[in-house]
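Step 1: inspect the first sequence and its tokens.
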Amino acid sequence: MLDNISDKGFRINYYKLQNQNSKSEYYGKWYGRTHMLGTAGINELARQIQSRCTVRESDILAVLTELSDAIADILAAGYQVRVPGLGIFHTTITTGRADTKDEFTDDNIKKLNVKFRAERPQTQMGNRTATVLKYCKMPVFVEYTPKKKNKKDDNSDGTPQSGG
């Protein structure tokens, strides 16, 4: 599925979407939204990594399998996790409000979240671009016409359907 993806350039699929919110000052205006062709799982990620180095796919799979648990352990200890060239994983919370500082308690905390910030080093010209986009010299924008989703097409384990 992902063979020779670097040979195809940096492809950005998008579709056109009209603002349907009649209360918005931008009602009726058109926007572009990106469209992902699917989700690559750790097997595809391991194959891509193996094609760039001498480490075997099975060894890469072992590391990737443990990565999420390792990140969770470090986040649980109160730290953020920086993966060089990729970005930083960190926790955030969603809370209700309180009228005073003393009235705010743990009960106001509604949800724990994990967020990711892509690494964005500054270039010599002062621009910031996510490191993961470093090979995106000239993206190819391709208009995509969304198709109706089939329930059987949804693969919850993150592995793409064959032929996609």
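Step 2: inspect the second sequence and its tokens, then contrast the two.
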Amino acid sequence: MKDKIQILLLLLALTWVSCSEEELSSESVITIDQEDYTPFDYWLERNYVAPYNIQFKYRYEDNESDMNYYTIPARYEAAVKLAHIVKYMCLESYDEVGGIAFTRAYFPKLIFTIGEWEYENNGTYILGTAEGGKKILLSGANYIDQYVKDADELNRYYLKTIHHEFTHIMNQTVNYSADFQLITGSGYVADKWSEPPYNTDFLTRGFITAYAQHSPDEDFAEMLSTFVCNSPERWAYWMGLAGTEGERLIMTKFDLVNRYMNDSFGIDLVQLRNVVQRRQLDITMGRIDLESLE
């Protein structure tokens, strides 16, 4: 028996030696064989990897998820539609205004989508996050069919989130002027933004959304994403609700955000909004085939 144990230990030692440190890698060894590729994987290679060097991950991976939340995978069909929308509404909008070189250089190289929202204890939920300028998480993919024909809902749950998170990534690349946070410096309330009295009358206090009251970084991202995702008529309506002082504060912020985008990246936000609005109408009117994998 002792001899058998010694032989077993020797075999284990040889096995360990065969996996020496020289063969180990810090990168994940979980890969997808090409024989397991779906038509969607090939479509992503052609439409995300080849032109932009961007990975769009729709298969569930623990290491890409936040283990503090209960999450589920995105359905295949939902992920296909969301990938089409992100490409047409976001990537190609920036291509059209700033050139594909801009999108290649600054858009994060990983988009990971999950099926459900990430729910917080305060009754709110996370639509998306940006990590280190390299990754955008998009949650709630499995609800895409409910919102794809409604511009307001499509913006609320998906498109505005992408523009918002991309703004954070651009801010991590080139910081914005410190003057921005002085405009409504005493108005930031962190996580209390969703509670009374902060969840109402935020426009009159100089904030374009309730969430903009969280912090200067969130305010900056909300300014850009809200502006480009809504029509000039909707923006004018909000400025009317804001009143004289609220409009002055919001437009002072907008001028700084627009100047930042022009000076840092050569992007004019009015032009970007026009492109986004046109492409948004194409999506909601059903002019774009969101299921094609040709």
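Step 3: confirm your contrast with the notes below.
The CA atoms of residues 97 and 206 lie 28 Å apart. The longest helix spans residues 232-265.
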